[in-house]
Write a structure and sequence with these properties.
Elements: E1 4-11, E2 15-17, H1 34-40, E3 43-49, H2 50-53, E4 76-79, E5 91-94, H3 97-108, E6 112-116, H4 118-126, E7 132-138, E8 146-147, E9 159-167, E10 170-177
Parallel strand pairs: 1-6, 1-7, 3-4, 3-6, 4-5
Antiparallel strand pairs: 2-8, 7-10, 9-10
Length: about 180
Protein backbone atom coordinates (compact mmCIF):
# COMPACT_ATOMS: atom_id res chain seq x y z
CA UNK A 1 0.00 0.00 0.00
CA UNK A 2 1.24 3.49 -0.80
CA UNK A 3 1.73 6.36 1.58
CA UNK A 4 -0.40 9.40 2.35
CA UNK A 5 1.46 12.62 1.51
CA UNK A 6 0.50 16.23 2.19
CA UNK A 7 2.26 18.32 -0.46
CA UNK A 8 1.92 22.05 -0.52
CA UNK A 9 3.57 25.30 -1.51
CA UNK A 10 3.68 27.79 1.33
CA UNK A 11 5.03 31.23 2.11
CA UNK A 12 7.94 31.64 4.52
CA UNK A 13 5.44 32.73 7.19
CA UNK A 14 3.48 29.47 6.81
CA UNK A 15 0.48 30.38 4.64
CA UNK A 16 -0.68 28.18 1.76
CA UNK A 17 -3.35 30.60 0.57
CA UNK A 18 -3.77 34.32 1.03
CA UNK A 19 -6.79 36.04 2.59
CA UNK A 20 -10.08 34.63 1.33
CA UNK A 21 -8.31 31.63 -0.23
CA UNK A 22 -6.48 33.79 -2.79
CA UNK A 23 -3.92 31.73 -4.67
CA UNK A 24 -2.72 34.42 -7.08
CA UNK A 25 0.31 34.98 -4.83
CA UNK A 26 1.63 31.63 -6.05
CA UNK A 27 1.89 32.49 -9.75
CA UNK A 28 5.45 34.01 -9.65
CA UNK A 29 6.76 30.94 -7.78
CA UNK A 30 5.43 28.29 -10.13
CA UNK A 31 7.77 26.90 -12.66
CA UNK A 32 10.37 24.27 -13.16
CA UNK A 33 10.81 22.08 -10.10
CA UNK A 34 12.30 18.73 -11.15
CA UNK A 35 11.53 17.09 -7.81
CA UNK A 36 7.85 18.03 -7.98
CA UNK A 37 7.71 17.08 -11.66
CA UNK A 38 9.01 13.61 -10.71
CA UNK A 39 6.51 13.38 -7.84
CA UNK A 40 3.56 13.67 -10.24
CA UNK A 41 4.33 10.19 -11.60
CA UNK A 42 4.41 8.76 -8.07
CA UNK A 43 0.87 9.92 -7.21
CA UNK A 44 -1.94 7.41 -7.66
CA UNK A 45 -4.85 9.46 -6.29
CA UNK A 46 -5.68 12.83 -4.79
CA UNK A 47 -7.59 13.40 -1.56
CA UNK A 48 -8.85 16.96 -1.79
CA UNK A 49 -10.71 19.27 0.54
CA UNK A 50 -13.87 20.97 -0.69
CA UNK A 51 -12.41 24.49 -0.42
CA UNK A 52 -9.31 23.44 -2.32
CA UNK A 53 -11.33 21.65 -5.01
CA UNK A 54 -13.63 24.60 -5.64
CA UNK A 55 -11.07 27.25 -4.77
CA UNK A 56 -8.89 29.73 -6.55
CA UNK A 57 -6.57 28.02 -9.08
CA UNK A 58 -3.77 30.42 -10.05
CA UNK A 59 -3.78 28.82 -13.51
CA UNK A 60 -7.57 28.84 -14.06
CA UNK A 61 -8.44 29.23 -17.71
CA UNK A 62 -5.00 28.11 -18.97
CA UNK A 63 -3.60 24.78 -20.11
CA UNK A 64 -1.90 24.54 -16.68
CA UNK A 65 -5.16 24.55 -14.70
CA UNK A 66 -5.51 21.81 -12.10
CA UNK A 67 -3.33 19.87 -9.72
CA UNK A 68 0.41 20.25 -10.25
CA UNK A 69 -0.08 22.91 -12.90
CA UNK A 70 -2.30 20.56 -14.89
CA UNK A 71 0.35 17.82 -15.08
CA UNK A 72 -1.49 15.32 -12.89
CA UNK A 73 -4.49 13.35 -14.14
CA UNK A 74 -6.27 10.56 -12.34
CA UNK A 75 -8.78 9.79 -9.64
CA UNK A 76 -9.68 12.52 -7.17
CA UNK A 77 -11.63 12.02 -3.97
CA UNK A 78 -13.15 15.21 -2.60
CA UNK A 79 -14.15 15.35 1.04
CA UNK A 80 -17.34 17.43 1.23
CA UNK A 81 -20.83 17.53 2.68
CA UNK A 82 -22.16 19.24 -0.47
CA UNK A 83 -21.39 17.17 -3.58
CA UNK A 84 -22.46 18.56 -6.96
CA UNK A 85 -25.39 16.87 -8.69
CA UNK A 86 -23.22 15.81 -11.67
CA UNK A 87 -19.61 15.11 -10.70
CA UNK A 88 -16.91 15.29 -13.37
CA UNK A 89 -15.17 12.12 -14.55
CA UNK A 90 -12.46 10.82 -12.18
CA UNK A 91 -13.87 12.85 -9.25
CA UNK A 92 -15.69 11.13 -6.39
CA UNK A 93 -17.33 13.17 -3.64
CA UNK A 94 -17.50 11.62 -0.17
CA UNK A 95 -18.57 13.03 3.20
CA UNK A 96 -16.58 10.68 5.46
CA UNK A 97 -12.80 10.88 5.91
CA UNK A 98 -12.42 7.14 6.50
CA UNK A 99 -14.36 6.25 3.36
CA UNK A 100 -12.51 8.88 1.30
CA UNK A 101 -9.10 7.69 2.50
CA UNK A 102 -9.98 4.06 1.88
CA UNK A 103 -11.18 4.79 -1.66
CA UNK A 104 -8.14 6.96 -2.41
CA UNK A 105 -5.74 4.31 -1.07
CA UNK A 106 -7.42 1.60 -3.15
CA UNK A 107 -7.16 3.78 -6.26
CA UNK A 108 -3.54 4.74 -5.56
CA UNK A 109 -2.28 1.20 -5.06
CA UNK A 110 1.46 1.37 -4.32
CA UNK A 111 1.63 5.07 -5.19
CA UNK A 112 1.01 8.13 -3.03
CA UNK A 113 -2.37 9.42 -1.98
CA UNK A 114 -1.60 13.13 -2.24
CA UNK A 115 -3.58 15.34 0.13
CA UNK A 116 -4.50 18.82 -1.08
CA UNK A 117 -6.04 21.12 1.51
CA UNK A 118 -5.00 22.17 5.01
CA UNK A 119 -8.14 20.95 6.77
CA UNK A 120 -8.05 17.50 5.17
CA UNK A 121 -4.35 17.21 6.05
CA UNK A 122 -5.17 18.13 9.66
CA UNK A 123 -7.92 15.49 9.73
CA UNK A 124 -5.53 12.88 8.30
CA UNK A 125 -2.99 13.74 11.00
CA UNK A 126 -5.63 13.45 13.72
CA UNK A 127 -6.64 10.04 12.36
CA UNK A 128 -3.00 8.86 12.33
CA UNK A 129 -3.15 8.46 8.55
CA UNK A 130 -0.62 11.04 7.31
CA UNK A 131 2.80 9.56 6.52
CA UNK A 132 4.77 12.39 4.89
CA UNK A 133 4.74 16.13 4.30
CA UNK A 134 6.40 17.96 1.42
CA UNK A 135 6.58 21.70 1.86
CA UNK A 136 7.71 23.80 -1.07
CA UNK A 137 8.65 27.09 0.54
CA UNK A 138 8.36 30.16 -1.69
CA UNK A 139 10.42 33.24 -0.78
CA UNK A 140 7.51 35.50 0.13
CA UNK A 141 5.67 36.67 3.26
CA UNK A 142 1.87 36.79 2.98
CA UNK A 143 0.97 37.97 6.49
CA UNK A 144 -2.50 36.37 6.51
CA UNK A 145 -4.50 33.56 4.95
CA UNK A 146 -4.77 29.81 5.33
CA UNK A 147 -2.01 28.30 7.44
CA UNK A 148 -0.15 25.13 6.51
CA UNK A 149 -1.35 23.56 9.75
CA UNK A 150 -3.72 25.01 12.29
CA UNK A 151 -5.14 23.23 15.29
CA UNK A 152 -7.44 25.19 17.63
CA UNK A 153 -5.85 25.11 21.08
CA UNK A 154 -2.59 23.91 19.57
CA UNK A 155 -1.13 20.51 18.95
CA UNK A 156 2.48 19.56 18.44
CA UNK A 157 3.22 17.07 15.68
CA UNK A 158 6.78 15.78 15.46
CA UNK A 159 8.27 15.51 11.99
CA UNK A 160 11.57 14.02 10.83
CA UNK A 161 13.21 15.92 7.96
CA UNK A 162 14.76 13.53 5.47
CA UNK A 163 15.46 15.54 2.30
CA UNK A 164 15.95 19.16 1.31
CA UNK A 165 16.48 20.40 -2.24
CA UNK A 166 16.59 23.89 -3.65
CA UNK A 167 15.42 25.22 -6.98
CA UNK A 168 15.63 28.78 -8.28
CA UNK A 169 12.31 29.88 -6.78
CA UNK A 170 11.72 27.57 -3.79
CA UNK A 171 13.06 25.11 -1.24
CA UNK A 172 11.57 21.59 -1.15
CA UNK A 173 11.62 19.97 2.29
CA UNK A 174 10.42 16.40 2.87
CA UNK A 175 9.33 15.18 6.31
CA UNK A 176 8.12 11.90 7.78
CA UNK A 177 5.43 12.08 10.44
CA UNK A 178 6.86 10.59 13.64
CA UNK A 179 4.42 8.21 15.28
Amino acid sequence: MGKVLYSVTMSVDGFIAGPGGDMSWLRPYLGPNPEVDALVGEIGALLVGARTYSGDDPNRGTDQEGAFEGAWHGPQFVLTHRPPPSPPDDVTFLDDLGAALSAAKDAAGDKYVNVLGADVARQCLAAGELDEVLTIVAPVLLGDGTRLFEEPGGRQVELERYRVTEVAHATNTWFRVVR
